[in-house]
Amino acid sequence: MIDMPTKRLFLREWHPFDGGSADIRFSDTIKYSEDIVIDNDRGIAIISFDPGRSEWNTVMGIFRDPNPKGSLYIYDYAATGTIKKLVLTDTIDFHPVGINFFRNSPQSKTRLFVANHQRTGTTVAVFDIDYDLYQAKYITTVFDNNETIVSPNSIAPVSYTQFYVTNDHHYLARTRPLLSKIETYFSMPWGWVTFVDFSSTEHQIVATNISFANGIVMTPTGKEVIVASSGHDAVYIYQRDSETNSLSGTHETVHVNFDHSLDISDPTVFDADGRFLRGLTVGGHPSIIKLVQAVHNPESVKAPSWVAEIRRGAGVDPAPCPAAPQQPKFYARTLYQSNGEHFSTSTTGALDSKRGRLLVASLYGKGILDISWKV
């Protein structure tokens, strides 16, 4: 988070793309979106949102009404510019948070993993997507009786049956509300990452001591796993063992999703060891105070938004308010920032640099932000 004097310097809207446009789309359809994932092979995006989030938010301890279900939508941003709802083939209690998909090749089936904060407990729901029929075929629900999958937030798939999942809290608001608030507001490092293989019921904790473990992504080379700590305003970069799926005991830290349109053979994107050089994007909330106010009054309070790209090396952030202090190994390049008047409560920033698009979700806003520029 940033301090209040810095937040006052935010403009209504800023991005670095000369001649680009920043438009809010589908505000009559999308409400309270948590995540967006881009399918670069098809030029479409999958959007998760929950219009009842103001009445049912298991992370923030709001349990008034779980009945309005969440949804998944397909946005064809590259061709038609249209949006259409994905039909779920099972009547599960659906409150989606983080989403991500796995596919072996462009012609293979697309498997979607969803962190689902349903009324009976938080789980990971698994679907196979049929783009032609706009259908999400329900496959299974993954849980382990709150042993290692306690508070799933975001998912990084490894295969059709394997994934990493962040757990943002040790204490749940639905069972231990006071301790959950202490964990949140004092940024206690009690979150973790679990590796799951549901074909063999293997669940293994692979990273610990993370304050509010939030977004997670595995780089396309499979060499690194990056985890966002919302509690410590940082991104942790772990080395990954592709044979065992274990993560390194130590990590590099950047004091913010990955652009999968980038070529893994491009030496400006990955170095010889497979480590990322650019393309790592993060979206988040610059002011925790305003975010909490928006949680309780989403129709009136507009909290600021921020999306940045993390790069290895030295560089300068051109934004009016730089995204991060100068650091020896990494720097942040702001892609969008707003005081909330233009677009509020940003979460995911999904980047397709080859097509010149940046799509941003809003946790407590209507619509998504669609930034486009010429490439």
TrEMBL record:
Cofactor dependency: Ca(2+)
Q: Which GO terms describe its molecular function?
A: arylesterase activity; metal ion binding
| Domain of life, source organism | Eukaryota
Paste the cofactor note.
Answer: Binds 2 calcium ions per subunit.
Family membership, please give it: Belongs to the paraoxonase family.
Which organism does this record belong to? Ajellomyces capsulatus (strain H143) (Darling's disease fungus)
KW Glycoprotein (keyword) present: yes
UniProt-recorded name of the protein: Uncharacterized protein
* Alphabetized UniProt keyword annotations: Calcium, Disulfide bond, Glycoprotein, Hydrolase, Metal-binding
Q: Which Pfam families match?
A: Arylesterase
Gene3D superfamilies the UniProt entry points to: TolB, C-terminal domain
Sequence positions that bind Ca(2+) = D35, I99, N153, N214, D266
